[in-house]
Design brief:
This protein has 309 residues and is α/β, with parallel strands linked by helices. The chain has two domains: 84 residues, Winged helix-like DNA-binding domain superfamily/Winged helix DNA-binding domain (Arc Repressor Mutant, subunit A, Orthogonal Bundle); 220 residues, D-Maltodextrin-Binding Protein, domain 2. It has twelve helices and 13 strands. The strands form three sheets. Strands 3, 4, 5, 6, 7, 10, 11, 12 and 13 form a nine-stranded mixed sheet that branches. β1 and β2 form a beta hairpin. About 3% of the residues have low confidence.
Length: 309
């Protein structure tokens, strides 16, 4: 048996209007066609739903039972349609996102909170990776999009400017470097360093800077998070480099001081990368639009500004 939802809607209309003619008008169907559909519905269910007479129709007990069932079924079908429309418009869905630690600790918490408050039915799965792994994950379609440091990662990816990032040097309070507000790497390399984990962008910058200055990089310890880095620096195990806004989270609670790093590479551009904006699932496209808004207000859709690597 295959019940026709059109016939069920017509049946509900007849029960509510108490007349086939009025129900037919409401459902935009001819009265004769409405009568035929009701007869076919009774034949399918093998039960009489209406007693017919010269005075009109009268619902049977079976009709009242079917009314509740039909309303439930039609409500569920309407819910399916509504939910699928929400997926199509980006209001529902699952987004696979990867980002580096700089974006996660500085910008994403507030942005994701505001996005989730506007789109509570969208599930965002965020993973932290280093920039090279982010580009690879997006290229291999294991992530919808990612946020990473600007650079050349190969592959046919589109990049959209995201946020500016500034690296600074932190040292324990009372450290000789804290007597100045600006520090060069030549000055900093005279001391022990607390480094980030192997493969991180910051460690790469430290190694390249030391090589250019022909000075040794004295990595006393390596950690995997900014909070661990700040704790180690506060304990006097060395100085460290991290983004300014990330360091600000710990300056009030730990005995550390921040100094401007007087190096051209200390100012970085974070970018958002994807295979193609037009190919993103609706929910991911909605999140990309939200993330690429300027801090002071919305910007144009990134579809127009994405550039290929």
């Amino acid at each position: 048996m295959r019940l026709d939802p059109i016939s069920l809607r017509l049946f509900v209309a007849v029960m509510e209007e108490q007349a086939i003619a009025r129900a037919a008008v409401r459902e935009h169907i001819a009265t004769s066609a409405a009568s035929r559909r009701l007869a076919e519905l009774e034949a399918q269910l093998q039960v009489r739903l209406f007693e017919r007479s010269n005075r009109g129709i009268a619902p049977t007990p079976a009709a009242y039972t079917l009314l509740d069932l039909a309303r439930n079924v039609l409500g569920e079908m309407d819910g399916i349609t509504r939910h699928m429309r929400e997926y199509g418009s980006g209001m529902r869905g699952h987004v696979r996102m990867v980002a580096n630690i700089s974006a996660i600790t500085q910008f994403l918490p507030a942005q994701l909170q505001s996005f989730m408050s506007q789109h509570p039915e969208v599930q965002v799965n965020l993973l932290e990776k280093v920039s090279s792994e982010i580009a690879l994950a997006v290229a291999q379609n294991t992530a919808d999009f990612g946020i990473l440091n600007a650079g050349n990662y190969g592959g046919d990816l589109a990049y959209v400017p995201y946020r500016q990032d500034e690296l600074i040097l932190i040292a324990p309070s009372g450290h000789p470097l804290t007597h100045s507000t600006h520090v060069t790497m030549q000055q900093a390399l005279a001391y022990d360093f607390v480094g980030a984990h192997a493969g991180s962008a910051i460690n790469g910058l430290l190694n390249r800077s030391a090589a250019l200055l022909e000075m040794p990089l004295k990595l006393r310890i390596q950690v995997t998070s900014y909070d661990a880095l700040c704790l180690m620096v506060a304990s006097g195990l060395g100085v460290g480099i991290l983004p300014r806004q990330s360091a600000a989270l710990y300056q009030g609670s730990l005995p550390i001081q921040a100094m401007t790093l007087a190096e051209p590479w200390a100012h970085r551009q974070l970018v958002l990368c994807m295979r193609a904006y037009s190919a993103l699932p609706p929910a991911a496209r909605t999140l990309v639009d939200h993330l690429t808004q300027a801090p002071a207000g919305p910007t144009d859709s990134p579809a127009a500004t994405a550039t290929q690597s």
